[in-house]
Design goal:
6-stranded mixed β-sheet, Nucleotidyltransferase, domain 5, alpha/beta, 2 domains
């Protein structure tokens, strides 16, 4: 069965058709932060026959916690959690609607990024907020980038042999959005993103972890409402907010190299948060046997991997010359010979993970 995968991210729309043997027989990548129904229609029009379509859903809340076949009732329920991931969920709903309109006979599946993190223990998932928030609103750590983390863990096991993932692993999905996952015996036990994809690492335009007192203080001082604060944290923070230039790591790096102090600070803040958060995830995993870099930055930025490894040398992380390979290394171990921790670079293949989950669900 050929499976169409639709992945509307915060900075791109990725489309692919995955055959039964995991061969990608067609693909397209549109750099856009809005859903392009025309692009989807043109892609489907030239694609081979399809047996199903799966759409990446970043946040299922309490509505959907695993890959699920979409019907009208579920589609309506998903609208109730659209605001939990405002940069992503509305695009996924647009994709589901476009598929229903343009391919009415095609079975639709949502593959949920939060599913991989269902195994996080309650001690790691529970916030110390009023219990009513937890019970009535489902406030807890959900975690995200689960499709990418799940594939990275599986691929790490294949690369390192033995047919399974290393016992204690930290997966680093680094891109416009970024998160870490602490993985023990193949299961997620903690992650840096929380109730929404705003938490954790410094990202392109998202702030990551911030003292909540800052938010209430700024709201009162500047007279902002919740929508104003959300806009600032989602789209005007992160690398863009500190550098004052761009959320694109390449632009910020170039500016830093040219002597821009704010751009240099933005990089230093990002790397500090990344390294210290990996340390925290290693604690959650009970140690560190392997570190996996994936996502656009994780795969392509040798300087980020090198700077991170240097900060984690005390844990046994050390990179060899393969880290600087040009073209960038893909699906390979770039650790220095004899390093205590294996360091892998794995191409993010959310499409393959989505197709696998859809096939497991459908007859």
């Amino acid at each position: 069965m050929n499976v169409l995968t639709v992945n509307p991210g915060s900075s791109s729309l990725k489309l692919s058709v995955v055959a039964a043997d995991d061969t990608v027989v067609a693909d397209a990548d549109h750099g856009t932060n809005t859903f392009d129904a025309g692009a989807l229609e043109r892609f489907v029009g030239t694609a081979p026959p399809l047996g199903a379509a799966c759409v990446r859903l970043v946040h299922g809340g309490t509505v959907v916690r695993a890959a699920t076949v979409v019907d009208d009732r579920l589609r309506e329920a998903l609208a109730s959690v659209a605001d939990l991931a405002p940069l992503h969920n509305p695009l996924a709903l647009d994709a589901l609607d476009a598929l229903a309109e343009r391919c009415p006979g095609l079975r639709r599946v949502v593959c949920v990024d939060t599913a991989f993190h269902r195994t996080i223990p309650e001690a790691a998932a529970t916030y110390a907020v009023p219990w009513d928030w937890t019970v009535r609103h489902g406030v807890r750590k959900y975690g995200f980038h689960g499709l990418s983390h799940a594939y990275a863990v599986r691929r790490a096991g294949e690369l390192l042999g033995g047919g399974g993932a290393p016992r204690r692993l930290v997966s680093c999905h680094l891109g416009a959005g970024a998160s870490l996952a602490a993985v023990r015996d193949g299961a997620s036990v903690d992650t840096t993103m929380g109730f929404t994809p705003l938490d954790g690492l410094v990202m392109a335009t998202r702030a990551g972890s911030v003292d909540p007192g800052v938010l209430t203080w700024v709201q009162r001082r500047d007279g902002l409402d919740a929508a104003d604060v959300e806009q600032q944290l989602d789209r005007a923070s992160g690398l863009r907010g500190i550098s004052g230039r761009s959320g694109d790591l390449r632009d910020v790096t170039a500016a830093a190299d040219a002597g821009d102090d704010r751009a240099r600070l933005a990089l230093d803040v990002m790397l500090h948060r990344l390294a210290t958060s990996i340390g925290a995830m290693a604690v959650a995993a009970g140690g560190l046997d392997a570190l996996v870099f994936t996502g656009g930055i994780g795969e392509h930025s040798a300087p980020v991997r090198r700077a991170t490894a240097d900060r984690l040398a005390f844990l046994g992380v050390a990179l060899g010359p393969g880290n600087e390979a040009d073209p960038p290394p893909v699906d390979t171990d770039v650790a220095a010979p004899g390093a205590a921790v294996r360091t892998l670079v794995v191409r993010s293949r959310e499409d393959l993970q989505m197709a696998r989950e859809a096939r497991a669900l459908l007859p």
